[in-house]
Automatic annotation (TrEMBL):
Protein source organism: Actibacterium lipolyticum
Gene responsible for this protein: pgi
Keyword set includes rRNA-binding: no
GO cellular component, one term: cytosol
Catalytic activity: alpha-D-glucose 6-phosphate = beta-D-fructose 6-phosphate
Protein name as catalogued: Glucose-6-phosphate isomerase
Length: 535
């Protein structure tokens, strides 16, 4: 059977159907949900019926999701365009073996974790000191996968943080490093240079600047630097002592790397026990992903719902809306995870994709988003599937009115998106407010909500380190499943290269050291503007 064709036909047939009518099936909420321990993923407020769900699962089976998953966990080189294994899951595996080229990588992973733990304990206890005494502040310099995960995690686990304060510098814009370093006592600051390649121009430029700043504050600046990288020759060339260098292998993709040394800042902030709980949560999700039947498999279902909306219904963006301030940076993190992984136009075999690839992912925490862009989500012309996340209990004032309001708003939004408000209902409201005749009609039309807009909700008891680990691993595996079904390589990122190359050639033109003669008219005009403004 052509599963794509079958599902396209189902999407066409679903158009006139109202999601709310599907709830005539009293068991719908339970049927269109998945559970893992205390976490519940509810996708019943989507226009997916039994046949559609079966069709989506058949699509996953036909793409051999289970076989590709086993190949990934088994250390096969599934990142074919870079000839690499994909084993971020090994970073959180409590036991092996996991073989790459016949070698078990787990002992090495555990050695590095122990090395991180020893260093973190030394920093947190004060036995490792800066020139001015116990380390009070940590500055992580990195970008993309060497920044977004730790930034998100630090906010997610803020209520567990009892170590040094952690700060992040990513942008090459000098405003970033200046603003971060300005308020710090550098004599008690540790700088971590986090870069898988140790060549990324933004990170290396910031690292050089940080070293210059540190040299103005202390006599031995290198002593207050640590590094996280796969390129140990480059960390030593930068002058960072071996005992403060934490290595990892090329089978960890940048955007999948916070489970290992890239998570050093997280471990420094929340301590080794909480960091290990975070790893354990991810491992729980890994085990579920590996063993649960596809029809009960949370990452598989999350992926299939996403594909139903994007590839079959044609909704080309999705909003991630955490009703959890601590997950404020989850949308930004997912932008890299999902769009760098599945923003591709060529299949693994080099042919052009014939279906849309991964969607645009965006979002902000609720309730702030409600007062910004929800207008468009409710009444705009584009349908935007919404992915809500909410905890039953908050970490801060978890059972107070704050949290009750947060939960009520989250539930209200998914309900409003589904139900909408008809013209008759809007008319009745306006009539009661004293409107009549043509003005009643005109005003009522502005107050109609089409409804029938799909959403999912991921709900968990409380955002603990373990649950946070589960959530992030859930999204990682979702990206994997979508990539397998699309037939693309989710683990390379060639699309970031061209801009990097052109930036190198444009730098001397921008400074005036080289001529802009060979450039296009727009670039020439912009260069001329810069030079005129600076002269
Ligand atoms: O944006 C491209 C990219 O290579 C990302 O994939 C990666 O996370 C980021 O740059 C940073 O790379 P590195 O850790 O090597 O500095």
């Amino acid at each position: 059977m052509d599963h794509w064709k079958n599902l396209r036909a189902k999407a066409e047939n679903a158009k006139p159907r109202r999601i709310v009518d599907l709830f005539k099936d009293a068991d719908r909420a339970g049927t269109f949900s998945a559970r893992l321990g205390d976490m519940l993923f509810d996708f019943s407020k989507t226009n997916i019926d039994d046949e559609t769900l079966s069709g989506l699962i058949a699509l996953a089976e036909s793409a051999d999701v289970a076989g590709r998953r086993d190949a990934m966990f088994g250390g096969e080189k599934i990142n074919e365009t870079e000839d690499r294994a994909v084993l971020h899951t090994a970073l959180r595996a409590s036991e092996g073996p996991v073989l790459v080229d016949g070698q078990d990588v787990i002992p090495g992973v555990h050695d590095v974790l122990n090395q991180m733990e020893a260093f973190v304990n030394a920093v947190r206890s004060g036995s490792f000191k800066g020139q001015g005494g116990k380390i009070t502040d940590v500055v992580n310099i990195g970008i993309g996968g060497s920044d977004l995960g730790p930034v998100m995690a630090l906010q997610a686990l803020a209520s567990y943080a009892d170590g040094p304060r952690c700060h992040f510098v990513s942008n090459v814009d000098g405003a970033h490093i200046s603003q971060v370093m300005r308020g710090l006592d550098l004599t008690t600051t540790l700088v971590i240079v986090a870069s898988k390649t140790f060549t990324t121009i933004e990170t290396m430029t910031n690292a050089e600047t940080a070293r210059t700043m540190m040299a103005e504050a202390v006599t031995d600046p290198s002593a207050q630097f640590a590094a996280v990288s796969t390129a140990l020759d480059k960390t030593s060339a930068f002058g960072i002592a071996e005992e403060r260098v934490f290595g990892f292998a090329d089978w960890v993709g940048g955007r999948y790397s916070m489970w290992g040394p890239i998570g050093l800042s997280i471990m420094l902030a929340v301590g080794p026990a909480n960091f290990r709980a975070f790893l354990k949560g991810a491992e729980t999700m890994d085990k579920h992903f590996r063993t649960a039947p596809l029809a009960e498999n949370m990452p598989v279902l999350l992926a299939l719902v996403g594909m139903w909306h994007n590839q079959f219904c044609g909704y080309s963006t999705r909003a991630v809306l955490p009703y959890d301030q601590q997950l404020a940076r989850l949308p930004a993190y997912l932008q890299q995870l999902e769009m760098e992984s599945n923003g591709k136009r060529v299949a693994m075999d080099g042919t052009d994709l014939t279906v849309p690839a991964g969607p645009v992912v965006w979002g902000e925490p609720g309730t702030n988003g409600q007062h910004a862009f929800y207008q468009l989500i409710h009444q705009g012309t584009a349908v935007i599937p919404c992915e809500f996340l909410v905890a039953a209990e908050g970490n801060e004032m978890g059972r107070s009115r704050h949290h009750q309001l947060l939960m009520a708003n989250c539930l209200a939004q998914s309900k409003a998106l589904m139900l909408g408000r008809s013209l008759d209902e809007a008319r009745a409201k306006m009539e009661a407010a004293g409107f009549e005749g043509a003005e009643l009609d005109r005003q009522a039309r502005h107050r109609v909500f089409p409804g029938n807009r799909p959403s999912t909700t991921l709900i968990y008891p409380k955002l603990t380190p373990e649950i946070f680990g589960q959530i992030v691993a859930l999204y990682e595996h979702r990206v994997f499943v979508e990539g397998v079904i699309l037939g693309i390589n989710s683990f390379d990122q060639w699309g970031v290269e061209l801009g990097k190359e052109l930036a190198v050639s444009l730098e001397p033109i921008v400074t005036g050291a080289a001529s802009s003669d060979g450039e296009d008219g727009s670039t020439k005009q912009l260069v001329a503007f810069i030079q005129a403004a600076l002269n």
